[in-house]
């Protein structure tokens, strides 16, 4: 089986390295499975004090539209269950008890952007390409982005990025408060590791408690947002335009949407 994510240790810092770089690290069911397993192991390893997620040249191109088609073809129930499995990745990252930092270079689209935003801190390259791509393919936000983006950037900015499907670079993302730090691409991983090492010496129970308190103070309900997204996205995946977008992606052509 192809390895999609490699876990490395750099002293007290764990590094989740997405390694399917030739395909820009698609967010597939298999990817989610490896992500959940690595996060579980990192959480149980007391020598790991913080974790950095990185995709190298590209963080993640988003949902595996080719791979999802076989499940969508089975109908609404199978589609809903598939979306829930996809959500397991974001759930695991968001609920990870230790500090989690995203190092974002290249593309972070759709579910890939959602995964980046599920971390506590996001460091982006100045020329990174971030996009809530769902509107372009006839879908709605999923993998937690409807909630995560509003928490970071506010409702107005979130609606603008979601409804337009606009691509922004790392500098703009920093200005809009979508990410916390923006540095040249060659410094992204280094900077993320610096932040992780800055956190690592602190008492871990206190850090974990602080993270839990900060999240609780700011939240309405992330899990409710996931359920809302799953229900809406499951309908859209079985409708006209999203399946057409997936088929066009497979056939390397422009989609022919019916509901413009």
UniProtKB/TrEMBL annotation:
Belongs to the enoyl-CoA hydratase/isomerase family. This is 2-(1,2-epoxy-1,2-dihydrophenyl)acetyl-CoA isomerase. Keywords: Isomerase. GO terms for molecular function: isomerase activity. The keyword Isomerase applies. Pfam families: ECH_1.
């Amino acid at each position: 089986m192809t390895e999609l994510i490699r876990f490395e240790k750099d002293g007290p810092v764990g590094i989740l390295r997405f390694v399917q770089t030739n395909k820009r690290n698609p967010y597939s069911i298999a990817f989610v499975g490896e992500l959940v397993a690595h996060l579980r192991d990192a959480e149980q390893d007391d020598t790991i004090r913080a974790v950095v997620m990185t995709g190298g040249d590209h963080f993640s191109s988003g949902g595996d539209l080719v791979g999802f088609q076989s499940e969508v073809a089975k109908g609404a129930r199978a589609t809903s269950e598939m979306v829930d499995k996809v959500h397991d990745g974001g759930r695991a990252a968001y609920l990870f008890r230790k500090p989690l930092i995203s190092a974002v270079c290249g593309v972070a689209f759709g579910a890939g952007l959602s995964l980046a935003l599920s971390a506590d801190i996001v460091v982006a390259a100045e020329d990174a390409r971030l996009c809530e791509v769902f509107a372009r393919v006839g879908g709605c936000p999923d993998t937690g982005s409807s909630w995560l983006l509003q928490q970071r950037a506010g409702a107005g900015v979130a609606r603008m990025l979601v409804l337009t499907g606009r691509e922004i670079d790392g500098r703009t993302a920093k200005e809009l408060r979508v990410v916390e730090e923006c540095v040249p691409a060659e410094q992204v991983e280094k900077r993320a590791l610096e932040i992780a090492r800055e956190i690592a010496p602190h008492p871990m129970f206190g850090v974990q408690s602080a993270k839990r308190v900060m999240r609780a103070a700011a939240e309405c309900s992330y899990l409710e947002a996931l359920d809302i997204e799953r229900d809406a996205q499951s309908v859209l995946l079985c409708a006209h335009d999203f399946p057409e977008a997936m088929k066009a992606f497979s056939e390397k052509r422009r989609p022919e949407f019916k509901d413009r």
